[in-house]
Amino acid sequence: MAPIRSSESAVTVDVHAAKGFVDSGHKYLDVRTVEEFKKGHPWNALNVPYVFFTPQGREKNPEFLEQVSLICDKHDHIVVGCQSGVRSLQATEELLKAGFEHVKNMGGGYVAWVENGFLVKALQEEL
User: Which GO terms fall under molecular function for this chain's record (predicted)?
Assistant: First the structure.
């Protein structure tokens, strides 16, 4: 379960390592938009969008840290994912800078999760 990539502060793990962490009790924080999340997400994922898509382009969620703090403690072990691994890396770096201690980025994102046949859920199933 070696990191596949590191930024200055964030560690990125591959999808298999990420699934292992989630299976062992880590929280999965999905930072995609609500619309993306509703189409499908890893089972038991928590959703806090890192950016919003607007007519003017991408806009960072100004309440991202506050919203994450409502559902995650700074001592929680968290795997952060998005669609492909770019937004989640940015979110992971921001969480680490804010004092979250055990945060890892999932490389490949939801695309890799689905490609590997891991369990997913769509919100339509929750009705």
Answer: catalytic activity
Nearest by Cα to 103 from 83, 76, 82, 84: 76
What is the pLDDT at residue 7?
55
Instruction: Map out the domains of the chain as residue ranges.
Output: 9-126
Whole-structure pTM value: 0.90
The pLDDT of residue 124 is 61
Residues 1 and 20: beta-carbon distance below 8 Å: yes
Which residues of the chain are modeled with pLDDT < 50?
A: 1-4, 6, 125-127
CA distances from 2 to 13, 27, 67, 107 (A): 7, 19, 30, 12
Q: At what angle do helices 64-71 and 86-97 cross, to 10 degrees?
A: 80
Amino acid making up residue 6: S
Task: Report the C-alpha gap between 80 and 69 in whole angstroms.
Answer: 14
72 is catalytic: no
Whole-number Å distance between alpha carbons of 51 and 59: 5
Active-site entry in 72, 78, 82, 106: 82
